[in-house]
Amino acid sequence: MTYRLLVIACSERKKAGPAWLEAIERYDGPVWQSVRAIQVPGNVAIMALSARYGLFRSCLGIELYDDRMTPELAAAAIAGEVCDPFKPYYRPHWKATVNEVRDAQEAVRYRHATRYAEPFEDICIVGSAEYLAVMRHELRRIALWRGQVSISRDARLTEASGMIGRMRETMLDWICESPRISCSKLVDITAGKEDYTPIAQRNRSPPHDEA
Fold this sequence. Notes:
Elements: E1 3-9, E2 21-22, H1 23-26, H2 30-37, E3 44-50, E4 54-57, E5 61-62, H3 71-79, H4 94-111, E6 120-126, H5 129-144, E7 151-160, H6 164-175, E8 186-188, E9 193-195
Parallel strand pairs: 1-3, 1-6, 6-7
Antiparallel strand pairs: 2-5, 3-4, 8-9
C-alpha cells in the first residue's frame, strides 16, 4: 500500500457556523467541495495550507478568518519568519509542522491497522503559485529531516495550479489513480451535476445503479 498525501490551499470562501469547524468542512471553495463530494481512499491523508495556521491536518478545527497568502507572506514563511498575520498562529516552531505531517501519516496507518507507518511516496499539492511555493518548501524540509521519516525523499510530486477548473481536474485525476475507489460516477455538488471522471475514463457507461 502506498501512502499518499494531498495538500490543498485554504479557500477564500468559507462556511459560517460554529466558532470552530473542521477545515475540510469550513473551506468551501470549488476544490474543497470536490474533495467532500467523492470518497477519498483511506491511504490518502489530506492537509491544508493556511495563511493563518500554516500546514495542518484538514480534520482540525479552525475559526472563520480572512487572511490571504500574499507573495510577501509566502516569502516570510519560507524564510521561517513569524510575522503578522501569521503571529501568533503560524508555526513558530519547526517541530509543530513535522508533527502535523507525522500525525497525518499515523492516521493512514491507523485506518489500515498496520503495525508500522510508511513514508508518503505520492504527493499532490493544490493552490496558487504562492501557496505551492510554501508547500514545496515545507515538504522538502520534512523529506530531508533526519528524524522520523514521514515523507520519502523519492516521493512523486504532482502540482495542481492555474485555472480553477484545471486545478480541480488535476487533483481529482490524482486521487482517482487509487484502485480503492471508482470515480466513474457523476457527483452532484451544487445546483447541477458535474463530471469528475478522469479524462481517460470518460465516455464509459456508468454502472447500472448509478444511471
